[in-house]
Amino acid sequence: MSVRSGSDTLNEELKHLQLLNSGFDALLHTVSKIRSDLRQTAETANASHELLDCWSMIISQDKSVTDYLNDPEWYGASRWKTVQEEVTQDLESERRALEHERARLLKANEEKKTLEAAKARRIRDREARLYGKKR
What we know:
mainly alpha
C-alpha cells in the first residue's frame, strides 16, 4: 500500500464522514422544524379551544336573550328598572311609616311616664295630707 492510496482512502473516508455530518445536520434541522411546527400546532389548538369556549358562551347568551324576547311575561330592562324603583319607593314609604310609628310610640310612652309620675305625685300628696294631719 502506498502513501498515496492511504491518503486517498483517508480523503474518501473524510468525504464520507462529511456527507454523513451533512445528513445529520439536515436531520437535526428537520427535527427542529418539526418541533417548532408541533409547538405552533399546540398553540393554535389552545387558541382554537379558547375561541370555541368563547363562541359557546356567546351562543348560550344568544339563546338566553332569545328566550327572554320570546317570553310574553318579560318586559325588558326598562320594566325591571320601573319595578325596582317601585319596590324602592314602597320600602322607603314603609320605612317612613315605621319611623312615624316609632316616634308616636316613644311620645305615647313619654306621656304615659309623665301621667304616671303626676299620678304618683298626687297619691304622695294625698297620703301626705291624710297621714300628715292624723299623725
